[in-house]
Amino acid sequence: MTDTIQNRYDFVLLFDVQDGNPNGDPDAGNLPRVDAETGKGLVTDVCLKRKVRNYVGLKHGEQPPYEIYVKEKAILNKQHERAYIEIGAGDELKNDKKRKGGSRVEEARQWMCRNFFDVRTFGAVMSTGVNCGQVRGPVQMTFARSIDPVVALEHSITRMAVATEAEAEKQDGDNRTMGRKFTVPYGLYVAHGFVSAPLANQTGFSEKDLALLWESLKNMFEHDRSAARGMMATRKLVVFKHESNMGNAPAHELFDRVQIILKNDVTAPRSFSDYDVSVKAENLPNGVSILDL
């Protein structure tokens, strides 16, 4: 990839959910994730990256240079083998059982970066089995946390059918299947992210990739609808651009400029309009600007 980025970026992502489960915890019966001490909702960085990957895969049809490395039902070592075949080192890979890649690991790593958007964006550990090295991604994100505590509601649901004849016989033909569904009535979540220019130069993350990242963050929920996530939306994306590739101000000082306050007459928020959101754009540190996306 050419035209790698030359600026550092820090960003704030605001998104919300209404009557849905933004990120269920499989270790807790798929309950919405919460901070046990504060009751505030959580959405993992892995969950958000998954949605970016899905958006990019849908838009570009899983074609290089926008293939997706970590995707449903993927066999990662098969992708590693592809890299060695493409760089003309398939025979060397077969013959070098000990090093699993021999002297061509760096070439394979570069091939993976060129062809897979999520490798050159988020990084990857590709030293399992067939060794394509490790990539430290230039784009990193935090867990998202809700502004206010959320309430996880449990709903009983009924399916007017059963899966087997044995189930039907037990119910004398009533044929009902009971289940549970968990939702959050409303939650406004905030995640923070970082884009490193020096690391982008190592992976080939380009200006075009950066534009696709912003597009994905703004639109990823539009193509992630389900019964559990029907009403989720990106509400605001605030991007701070640094003139320097190493940065012109600490990220936390920039993040503090984004203020989200619950309106005085609201006790139980149920929509984005229940909040006042503002960005302090005056007196920015020298070398820092706010992008209008």
Total domain count? 1
N- and C-termini, Cα separation: 24 Å
SS summary, helix count: 9
The main sheet comes to: 8 strands, antiparallel
How many strand units?
14
| Strand content bin | 25-35%
Structural class by helix and strand composition: alpha+beta
Mean pLDDT: 92
What share of residues is helical?
A: 25-40%
Bulk shape: flat
Order of helices and strands: EEEEHHHHHEEEEEHEHHEHEEE
**From the alpha-carbon coordinates, what is the Rg to the nearest angstrom?**
23 Å
**Low-confidence region ranges:** none
Commentary on this structure:
This protein has 9 helices and 14 strands. Strand 5 and strand 6 (134-136) form a beta hairpin. The mean pLDDT is 92. It has one domain. The chain is flat and about 65 Å long. With 293 residues, the chain is an alpha+beta fold. Helix 1 packs across helix 8 (207-219) and helix 2 (76-86) crosses helix 4 (105-115). The protein has helices at 45-60, 76-86, 90-95, 105-115, 117-122, 165-170, 197-203, 207-219, 251-255; strands at 9-20, 24-25, 31-32, 40-43, 123-125, 134-136, 139-141, 144-149, 153-159, 177-195, 231-242, 258-262, 275-279, 288-291. Helices cover 28% and strands 30% of the residues.
Short descriptors:
single chain; 293 residues; alpha+beta; 8-stranded antiparallel β-sheet; two-stranded antiparallel sheet; 9 helices; 14 strands; 28% helix; 30% strand; flat
